[in-house]
Amino acid sequence: MRAKITYLITAAVLVVFFVLVGGRAVAMMKLGTPLGIGLGTAALIIPLIGVWFLWKNTEFVRKANKLAATLDAEGALPVDELRRTPAGRIDRDSADEVFAKRRVETEDNPDDWRSWFRLAVAYQDARDTPRARRAMQRAIALHDGKPVRTD
């Protein structure tokens, strides 16, 4: 729940920023000078890219949460079997062991979105966020019946 609240607050702050920058961009364009129009147009691109990026990330999180809810309803969410340090951090060797199991499971079932979801969680536990994101994107695509890139 804490992560959702943090995400919503961050998204709200970004939206306010986009509105403020967009307002300044429009004000510069209203000056009517070539420099004002050029700078205003350039400044307007920033919030447009930001809105697109925020939308894509929100969709990704929404779809990943939908998969998690489906797995939870099936009783198939990955069990937290990781050892932790006294400070509560995940033990690296433990994360590597779980990751190895998840990788084998995914190699045995490459078309199963559930195994890709569990692999994404293992990547995240191993602190490999880019691969975790790609694995989750693959799980989402497989779940939605969309074509999956094999790179």
UniProtKB/TrEMBL annotation:
Q: Which keywords accompany this UniProt record? A: Membrane, Transmembrane, Transmembrane helix
What domain of life?
Answer: Bacteria
Spans traversing the lipid bilayer: 7-29, 35-55
Protein name in UniProt = Cytochrome c-type biogenesis protein CcmH/NrfG
**Which species is this UniProt entry from?**
Streptomyces candidus
* High-level lineage: Bacteria, Bacillati, Actinomycetota, Actinomycetes, Kitasatosporales
